Amino acid sequence: MGRSGHACSVLGSLLLLLLLLGPAAAQKGSTWKTLSGDAPAVIAKGGFSGLFPDSSDPAYSFAVSNQDSAQWCDVRLTKDGVGICLPDIKMDNCTTISDLFPKGKKTYRVNGVSTTGWFSVDYNSIDLT
């Protein structure tokens, strides 16, 4: 078998493969295995934390921009009663608050335990924007 015979054989094999796989690729995808057959509702805590760091600005921003998502976050109240999303009660565990307010460390009893750190209840919402 010469070069042209080998090339025809390879080309023929590729065409046969495409003919066999074509109908499989064109088949309609299966329905969702939910009670209604619709796509499942996905609610992720901390924004789109599968794509972005948990509870980060990009994670929340992307979740808000997607029509098929719902927001779920841990809400902390500020001194003026505004709710903000923070994954931890101590702001210094999830923000750089200590850089902005180095003298803002306080101690509170949280669930019966003396806890020291920066807390959202010590700041007005305007101070945190």
List the helices and strands and how they pair.
Blueprint: H1 3-26, H2 57-65, E1 75-77, E2 83-85, H3 97-100, E3 106-110, E4 113-117
Give a description of the structure.
Residues 1-26 form the signal peptide. By secondary structure, the chain is α+β, with helices and mostly antiparallel strands. Among the domains are: 39-73, no CATH class; 89-128, no CATH class. The chain is built from 3 helices and 4 strands; from the N terminus they run ααββαββ. The strands form 2 sheets. Strands 1-2 form a two-stranded antiparallel sheet. It has a two-stranded antiparallel sheet with strand order 3-4. Strand 1 and strand 2 form a beta hairpin. The longest helix is centred in the N-terminal third of the chain and has 24 residues, at 3-26. The N and C termini lie far apart (76 Å).
Apparent shape = elongated
Mean pLDDT: 83
Oligomer, anyone?
Answer: single chain
How are the strands ordered across the major sheet?
1-2
Helical fraction equals 25-40%
**Structural class per helix/strand content?**
alpha+beta
Keywords: Glycerol metabolism, Hydrolase, Signal
Organism: Triticum turgidum subsp. durum
EC number: 3.1.4.46
Catalytic activity: a sn-glycero-3-phosphodiester + H2O = an alcohol + sn-glycerol 3-phosphate + H(+)
